Amino acid sequence: AVVSTxxxxxxxxxxxxxxxxxxxxxxxxxxLNSFEQNALPLINHSGSDVTIIVIDEIGKxxxxxxxxxxxxxxxxxxxxxxxxxxxxxxxxxxxxxxxSRADVDxxxxxxxxxxxxxxxxxxxxxxxxxx
Length: 131
What we know:
single chain, alpha+beta, three-stranded antiparallel beta sheet, 4 helices, 5 strands, globular
């Protein structure tokens, strides 16, 4: 098993007076090249083994990358990949389309369930994998 906790360098706050290059979300400038160079290899699945991939998060910033969106769709279409993704509560059309898929379980994180969530997620993943 390969595990990576690598940060993808998606966004940064630029010092005052520095010209931003790239899309912005709030005070953050998105470095699409760095993000794609780091993130896309981590979510690539080209083998024949069943794989679990965790994506934290599919949100506004990540979705500026068309290559990321295409790779995520490819993963959702694979029978060999099981995804665990965090997504925002607010509405984003691409995320909404993922959440509305018949093969997707949406579990909301709340104060009441956050401490037991790891066990719940593991149960869901194991049931999906064994089917």
